[in-house]
Structures are given as structure tokens and as C-alpha cells.
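User: For documentation purposes, I need each entry recorded in a consistent format: the amino acid sequence on its own, followed directly by the corresponding C-alpha cells. There are two entries in this batch. Please keep commentary to a minimum and don't merge the entries.

Assistant: Recorded as requested. Entry 1:
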Amino acid sequence: MAAKVLTVQSVERYKPDPEKRLEIPDATLPGFYLVVQPSGAKSWAVRYRVNGRPRKYTIGPYPLFDLSKARSVAREALQSAALGRDPYLAKREAAAASVAAEEDRVSRVIALYVERHLKPNGKPRYAEEAEALLRNHVEPRWGSRRIGEVTRKDVVAMNDALTDSGMTAGANRVFSAARAMFNFALSREIIETTPFLGLKPPVSETSRDRVLTDDEVRMVWRAAEAVGAPFGAMVQLLLLTGQRRDEVARMVRSEVDGDLWTIPAPRTKNSLEHLVP
């Protein structure tokens, strides 16, 4: 088709040919043209040569790109080609860089960590708690940032914000969950170093050494009797066995044989089967 000066009005007037795709070249800017598909969809493109090889660069659809914008993009592409740079390759590389930039956003890395590490390797309860800590405290703070841009200063600021809000041991749990996620990113070479190096949890914790007196045990036992099943009985079993709350709460009849209770490995803290008289 012979080149014509494209105008806003003529672009609107061009009708589709149901049999074939139309290319209407622009006499104002050689190489630039309007594409009209048999469906009626319209778009813009520009043809050029780089190192003697013909190339085509798709600008985008009309009317998202109006005539003025499309012509401007085409002119830039032609100028780039005249300097020996291929605008098509530049566009493809920019798109790849954009995808890569999205892949290492903290929110994306959290999702990858949960699916590839926490769920397959962690106990269900731990995986659930760690994911909740990351979703509730880390993602709102850093989610839209590239993970490699998070610094030690950012980690310190997070620790301060958590403790200033009144969190104590909970701040340490957030710190540990975030550190583990960053270590996962490091192992996958998503980042080259982690901002948690050399940093300690924000709050010092001491082991609990408080135990109930005989009188307190007697009071708890009687209170549990008054409460009744299932929670009263569970508290009494906690007193009798000294086992962890969740281990007792999730006990099933098949784990008890005579006077021996076998806690299966998946439910113990150290992942080893535990026998309790």
C-alpha cells in the first residue's frame, strides 16, 4: 500500500479487510505504519535495518498509543537503529530486567520461601506460625522492595519498631523468621549477602525456672476437675506427664498402649519419637 500521511481522522476511518491484515505506511515518517487486523484491532509498528538486517519493532495497540505517541516512539526507534542499536533487543532486555526485578521483591521471595522450604521441611505448626510472622510484620514493611536493597539499618529499624510497639519475645520470633527467609534467599543466590549478619534478636530472653508449689498443683488440679472435659482433663494430663501443651492437646487413643504413651516424631520438638510413661 502506498504511503499516506496518517492523521487522527484517517486512523479512525481505516476499516478492516476480513481477508487479510493491512499495513498502512506513514508518509511523514518512513518505516512507521499502522496495522489493521481482520478483527478490526489496530496497532503500530516500525520497520528498520540494523547492520543491514531488516527488523520490526511493535510499538503497541491503538488507541492505547495514539498517533502522536506512536510516531514519537517510532522516531526514537529509528534514531536508535541509525546509531547501530537495535530497539527491539533493547525492549526485550528491558522486559526481562523488569520480570527479574519483580521476582526478587520481598513479597515474592516470602511466597517462594513458604512454598519451597517452610511447608515441605517445617512442621505444620511452625510453618504456619513463621508464615504468619512474615506476612504480618515483614511483608507490610518491605514487601514491595527488592530483597537485595534491604540493609542492616532496615533490620535495626524493624527491631526497634517491634519493641517500641510493646513486643518482647514476639519481636525475637519475627527477627528469627525474617533471618531464616533471608538465609533461604542467600542459599538460592537471590542475594549475595544477608543484612542479618552480626545482628542479634532485639530482646534478651531468660529460661523460665518457675515451678508450681505443691499447694499450687493441688489448686490447679481441683480447678481442672471443676472445669471438666475436655480442657480440665487436658490440664491434668499436662501436670501428670510434664509434656508440651500441643503434644497433649493432639494426643490420640492409638498413641497409648497400656501405660505407655508414644508421641510420634512429627509432633515432637526435636523430631524424634518420644516415650512417656
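Entry 2:
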Amino acid sequence: MKEEEILKNKSLVDKYLNKKKYLCLFDAYFYNIDDLSIYIRLDYNNKNATYHINWVNLSSMDDKNVEFWINSTLLFPSMVDKIKNIIAKNGMVENYQDNDGINSKVIINSYLKEYEYNIKTFKFNRYIPNCWQFLADLLFIVFENMPRYIYPLFQIIIEKIIKPDTNCVFNFDFNNDNFDDLFDKETIKIGKEYYKDSRIIFLEKETDFYKSVVCGSQNYLVSILIKDNTKEVQMSCNCPHDGFCKHIYATLLAIKNKEEYRYFKIAHVDDDKDLIDNLKNFNYLLCVGIVDDYFVVIDNFDFVYVPILKDGKLNFKIIEDDDKKTLEKQLNKYLKKHQK
């Protein structure tokens, strides 16, 4: 449904509730959040001296029978007092210009006239910005008193102000947001040292994933997903550190500076495709070298050891090496020692 139609429905809801003598304390308009458009009002009914959360799915309204579409929940005065206190303490906010470029919209209006910071409007495209974190506290009270199936909308809009975890996809604009905010100062310091000391041995992108090998106390594998179109990121490292580590930070610096250190690539010897076809069709394994009797390859988020020989015969062939033929030399040395 186009926003023009959504706004017409919103106007019908306002007209109906105002006619019913509901006094609006604040409202929240959510447009096109994962194809859902919701309108919420916190109202005071003077006749009954009661507070109500009135809400409607604007995307579903298809006629002018507004009463049929409006849902209402009573809210305890103590909860309303909490909302009023949040607004009173956080009325003065900095100006905010949203640059997410996402085709959605959130507009929140406060009409609490008894406070110094009375009428306020907060606008952003999808995610509550850090400068207005208090809005999450306010909306949490509202969404906790609404049906559970609406709650995921709240979870979406607070993504930017929640400290993300490794291995989890979270909202992040790699081109505009500062990834330093994800790390503590000591990790940033050591991560920069790792980057300057050229500890990133391999770094290459496959589809949306960057995979790097970083030399620390041993070699560690970093995997970073960056989706520019949806502004989503996922980061992981197989080191013992619990959280965003120095290996991830060093890798992010290399990605930001558009650096690449290509992996060795190997394919099964029984694959009848030529080298170019294997590379074009991703019929290969990313390899970091040879250890004992094995090629060390990348499988998802960890190192895997695959046998060099099978029944005494070479199990894999090299389809990409570096300029110094490093992997070929390692393999020849191994074969000279182990093959008759």
C-alpha cells in the first residue's frame, strides 16, 4: 500500500479517536517496517479517567469502518507516569539527520504540555539513533502492553542501540558508521598494531563474505559478512576471545582500505574442469598451506585438514598459487618425501 493511502487511514483513526474525546499524549507512526505500517497512540479518556494504548494496522484497513480496525488496551497510571518521566528527563535532544536511505519511516510525537519540554517530534527512517536511546525505554513500555506478535517491530527499530554479538547479524552501515564503536580501546590499539605489522596473511571476498587469516599466538580465521543493500553485518573469529577481537578489527581496517591477499586454491583431481572453469564456478577450496599430511582449507568458519594423498595418490590439484609458487613448492617437497 502506498504511503498516501496509509496516511489517509491514519487521518481517519485520528479523527475517530478525537471525536471520542480521547486526548493524545503521544503517538508513533511506523511506515513500511518489514512491509508493516502501524499507528499507535497513548490516549487519556477524560470521561472514564483511564489511559489507553490505541493502535491499528494501517496496512490492513480497507474501508472507512475505523472502529472495526482499532485495538485498545488499558494502561495502568503507574506505567503512564514512567513514560511521562522518560519524556520529561529527555525532552531536549540534538538535531538528527537520518542517512540510512531505507524506504521506511518512523515519526514519534510527544504532546505532554505540562512539562518544560512539551511538544517534540522525532523522525528517523527505521532504527532509533544513539542520540535518542531513551525512546527505546518509552516504547518498550508501550509494546509490552500490546500483543506479542507486534513485538518484533520494536526489536527491529532498536537494533542500532543494542551492543551486537559476534556471530549474529546486526544493523550496521559499513560505509558510514564507525566500527570503532564496537570495540574497547585496548582492542583497537592492538588491532591497529596487528594491521601495521602485516599480520593479515590472507584476505579475500566471496559473495558477501570476507574471510581473513590473521597471525596471532597462532593463525586465526576471521569471517565478516557485509551487506551494503540491507546495511547488515555479521562478524566472527575462531580465537578464544569472547566478543569483537583484535583480529576482527585488523581485518576491518584492511577491508576499509580495499586490501586483498588471495588464498591458495585447490580442487579435487577427479574434477575434469580446467583451472579457469573451476575458478569461475567456485569449484575450489580456499587453502592456507600444508601441515603434516594435510592441506589446511577454509570450511565455513574454521580450518579443516584434508588429506593430500588418497590411496597413495594425489587427492587435490592446485588451481591458484601466489607469484612465488609457495604452495607448489610445499607440495613438491611433501611428495618427494612421501611418494615412491
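Summary note for entry 2:
The two ends are 72 Å apart (CA to CA).
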